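for the recovery benchmark. tokens below, seq after
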């Protein structure tokens, strides 16, 4: 495949194991053993995907994720031994695209990495007309080429999957999407995954585009079903 993956993991044996599997699957791998080095490599090598551990020396994974999301929309897959739901919600809320718990299956990890890279390239590699499409609704404007969102003329910084969910809803106003359908359409697969991921991402979108997130003017919850754009 030739894709480049950055692995930010302080456990060298785990980092090297992931690198070996990536290379077996035809991908290039760069390793960083702490958060500062990971940030530096992410910005200098522009990887297709970042595998990010949470428990890093110095700058922890949460802060790395936060800083990366300001600079890149490339997929971020969190890999962590921390199993508390609050850690998962926090990581996804900072803009990570997926969360894999340790110990993990290398085969499953490779499948998720490939799925996220394929999905990202498909979403950013459409026809020229699709890439330059601008979708507007009331005070909301989304430009696909630049992946820019403006609300009332002010830019709102949405993470990769947040943008994809909003664009999905914008392209079909009034249509109700179940969490399962959103997950399948945006993440590109439905074998793995926690549907709470969708809930977290929708909450983050509302915080960024709504005047009052508790009384949303754009993304409406259809109880027991899913979400739709009003």
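predicted aa per position
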């Amino acid at each position: 495949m030739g894709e480049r993956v950055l692995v930010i993991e302080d456990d060298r044996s785990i980092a090297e194991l992931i690198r070996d599997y990536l290379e077996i699957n035809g991908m290039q791998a760069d390793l960083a053993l702490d958060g500062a080095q990971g940030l530096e490599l992410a910005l200098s090598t522009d990887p297709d995907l970042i595998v990010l551990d949470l428990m890093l020396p110095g700058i922890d994974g949460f802060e790395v994720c936060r800083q990366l999301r300001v600079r890149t929309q490339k997929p971020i897959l969190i890999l962590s031994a921390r199993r508390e739901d609050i850690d998962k919600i926090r990581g996804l809320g900072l803009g990570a695209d997926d969360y894999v718990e340790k110990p993990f299956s290398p085969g499953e990890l490779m499948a998720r990495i490939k799925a996220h890279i394929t999905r990202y390239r498909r979403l950013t590699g459409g026809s020229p007309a699709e890439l330059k499409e601008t979708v507007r609704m009331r005070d909301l404007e989304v430009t696909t080429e630049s992946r820019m969102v403006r609300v009332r003329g002010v830019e709102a910084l949405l993470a990769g999957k947040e943008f994809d969910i909003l664009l999905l809803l914008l392209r079909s106003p009034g249509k109700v999407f179940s969490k399962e359908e959103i997950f399948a359409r945006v993440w590109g697969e439905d074998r793995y995954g926690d549907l709470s991921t969708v809930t977290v991402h929708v909450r983050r979108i509302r915080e960024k585009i709504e005047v009052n997130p508790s009384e949303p003017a754009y993304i409406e919850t259809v109880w027991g079903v899913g979400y739709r754009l009003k």
